Amino acid sequence: SEDWFLFDVSSYSIPAGGFAQIDAHFDASNLSGGDYFEGALYIMSDDPDDPELYISIGLSVNETSDGDAYIYVGDSEIISGHSSSSVDINLYSSEDVLGVSMGITIDPDNDEPQLWDDLNFDHDVSGSVILTNDGPGEASLFIGFNYPLSGHINLGQLHLPIYDDLISGSSYNIDLENVSGSTPDFEYIEMDDYSSTVSIYN
């Protein structure tokens, strides 16, 4: 395994009807900007239709410079048939930030159905969250911190309801728009919009 990526276990066996959670850890603290790839996770089973599930592993690292502040979501591959899957929303800021706000839009990449009438968000930072669902695949998100933060910050997880009948390989675009933050002195911080992709596998 590369230094920036680690599974809690290298292999695991699950009995029929059983369940296991395997955590994956990504660390970009010693990486320069660019795209990094580390093979794939293979899940093998006795399912006659899908005996092997392949999940590629990659990491995109943004360049940083003094005065930068931006929001980002890593490209994700999630499995249909689960009641909910999630993607991480992250923030980088070279200066102290006391809160961020953004609009979230999720659109099908091709002819896939519109999804996610009811988005949810679990925050990982100490503070308050207001999430308003504005329509199918649309939401407004505000996160206020209890104290100023800077550097790379995992804001939390955006939860996406997944349906069993999705075609494997379907993809959806996640757009974070009108992104802004505020300093402890309540000065406005403008940030670029950001786009990412979620791919569905079953």
Overall description:
The protein has 202 residues and is mostly beta strands. The chain has no helices and 13 strands. It has strands spanning 5-7, 24-26, 34-44, 52-61, 69-72, 76-79, 85-108, 120-123, 127-135, 138-160, 171-182, 188-190, 194-201. Strands 5, 6, 7, 8, 9, 10, 11, 12 and 13 form a 9-stranded mixed sheet that branches. A two-stranded antiparallel ribbon has the order 1-2. The protein is globular. Mean pLDDT is 78; it is low at 79-84.
Would you spell out the secondary-structure blueprint of this structure?
Layout: E1 5-7, E2 24-26, E3 34-44, E4 52-61, E5 69-72, E6 76-79, E7 85-108, E8 120-123, E9 127-135, E10 138-160, E11 171-182, E12 188-190, E13 194-201
Parallel strand pairs: 6-13
Antiparallel strand pairs: 1-2, 3-4, 5-7, 7-10, 7-11, 8-10, 9-10, 11-12, 11-13
